[in-house]
């Protein structure tokens, strides 16, 4: 091949791929809205939404909860990114949550929220979400809407196909996007990809009472890219399905080099079999350093533990754990129908959507209807596992979710639409444009055994002209469609925080029934809690000064402190004495280099302050808590390092009297 031909072929492939992934605007850009759309999304003042939507914040690192059908933003839950609004990742209690083997990482890229499941149904206990960049999985407690645990995932590079719950949350499963060198020697040439790079799929055990996560085992799998996953359910319980691309095993210019082969793979994982091998002692412990951070609701504090090894099963040796099914060009989503029988694989560059049958797959495995091997993994014959193909679905199929009436909804990135098709006949019955370039979509309960249906939410990549412009960066956006009838109907556009990669939604009742309104003061085991004003104090220990402070409508105690010195490290441990729902107090002090505190009723939180100069520093409550909120204030006096001003503190009658600065 002459260099010219080589070059032009490459350029052509680049052009095709670029066109495909910039997406195109639907031709008919004016929105068709049916007459009663406004009524369908109007939630009158004082009324509650029907559904909670939990959307990832993408590169914001957080999760946001919205009410549906109104699209109203209810709460941003800080997860992987520091959040000065409530001190997350800045306070002494929460800093440890962001520790990793790479140090303190105050940001990540969050993609896939996943509600915990019982018998294949959202149960409202926890929400899991992946940190994509520095591989981590977080668990949010849906009683408190707080992140309670963050577990780092070793041997992973880009925690993208993650986290996916099995039918009863036996595991959350995390697959690596990038294969990477694993083991003792990871300092290898990148060109040695084929020899040295491997994938790792982590099966993380979830304690059913507390939710605590632990890596039960990791499967070491061929070195390709693992994109997304879904667990089997019903008939396919015990299995997990991953979409894989880059079966070319390219390590450079993947947009061209990883689009060469006609087919990539879906990987079917028999995790029950893997469990058996673990029981038989066939796992191998591998050294791996990773952080495990847990927030304790009793002490209101997080602790990091460093884990040192991980149990691995090598699929080169234990061959009946995983199988490949060929799948047209660069599959993205792998989604499982409510009954667990159909596995829908969406190839980004494919012209059809293949639907695989779990029954046919297991028959083919039993009969060894294979088409050779790929990196020691048996490849099941495409036709042997295929239930059928959805013909002419649209361009760039990405993700599929299901409703309660036997229909599937697939997002089409390139043709920017949602396509509705019948699961049993695979016939397309409706399509509706999205504005613009839909990525994931979310049907309420759309990955459950019995989906709730009623709405599909499009999570779009581009908004262009849909909102008032805000400079070069435009808002991210979702769109709500009514799917209760035969035709899908657009109801609402609403902006989102960060990029809403994926979202999960469930009926409000599932979440509401578990809500925690306060933290009981009597159960507060924070080592620096002051459970009443008599317990407030200020204690010096060398250069460290600890302030046991309380907050109650409408004063802080102590509110006058003297005897702090330049160069001291001052810790304000503030306990909110309130025991009423919706009465947080805030705390901020002038010149603090970190954050404020936002303290929930019954909670204790700590801010560290290192005053750099002498003087009198005001502090106050930042959350408008009562008519006398603006009176909720105080002073800390800072004297020179060598001053003899004694440590004194109090509030009202007990406030320090007549102290003169001395040199
Ligand atoms: S991916 S747009 Cu990050 Cu979930 Cu499919
Ligand atoms: Cu407490 Cu304002």
Structure characterization notes:
The chain is mainly β and 663 residues long. The protein has a domain at 529-662: Cupredoxins -  blue copper proteins (Immunoglobulin-like). Helix content is 9%, strand content 43%. It contains 8 helices and 46 strands. Strands 6, 7, 8, 9, 10, 11, 12, 13, 14, 18 and 19 form an 11-stranded mixed beta sheet that branches. A hairpin with a 6-residue loop joins strand 33 (476-482) and strand 34. It starts with a helix and ends in a 13-residue tail after the last strand. Mean pLDDT is 94; it is low at 1-24.
Shape: globular
Describe the main β-sheet briefly. 11 strands, mixed
Q: Mean pLDDT across all residues, rounded? A: 94
- What is the end-to-end distance? 85 Å
Q: Mind telling me the CATH superfamily name of the domain at 529-662?
A: Cupredoxins -  blue copper proteins
Share of helix, binned: under 10%
The share of residues in extended strands comes to 35-45%
**Structure class:** mainly beta
List the uncertain runs. Answer: 1-24
Number of strands: 46
CATH level 1 class label of the domain at 529-662: Mainly Beta
CATH topology of the domain at 529-662: Immunoglobulin-like
Instruction: Identify the bound ligands.
Output: (dicuprio-$l^{3}-sulfanyl)-sulfanyl-copper, dinuclear copper ion
**Number of helical runs?**
8
Radius of gyration: 28 Å
How does CATH name the architecture of the domain at 529-662? Sandwich
Explain the layout of strands and helices.
Blueprint lengths: L2 H20 L14 H5 L9 E6 L6 E6 L3 E6 L21 E2 L2 E2 L9 E5 L2 E11 L4 E6 L4 E7 L8 E5 L5 E5 L4 E2 L11 H4 E10 L6 E9 L3 E7 L7 E7 L8 H4 L5 E8 H9 L4 E13 L4 E14 L7 E7 L2 E6 L5 E6 L5 E5 H9 L3 E5 L2 E4 L1 H4 E5 L6 E6 L4 E6 L4 E6 L5 E6 L4 E6 L11 E6 L15 E7 L6 E8 L6 E5 H5 L24 E5 L2 E9 L2 E3 L2 E6 L3 E8 L8 E5 L7 E3 L4 E6 L5 E6 L12 E7 L8 E3 L13
Parallel strand pairs: 14-19, 37-40, 39-45
Antiparallel strand pairs: 1-2, 1-35, 2-3, 4-5, 6-7, 7-8, 8-9, 9-18, 10-11, 11-13, 12-13, 13-14, 15-16, 16-17, 17-20, 18-19, 21-22, 22-23, 23-26, 24-25, 27-28, 28-29, 29-30, 31-32, 32-33, 33-34, 36-37, 37-38, 39-46, 40-43, 41-42, 41-44, 44-45
Bound molecules: (dicuprio-$l^{3}-sulfanyl)-sulfanyl-copper (RUQ) and dinuclear copper ion.
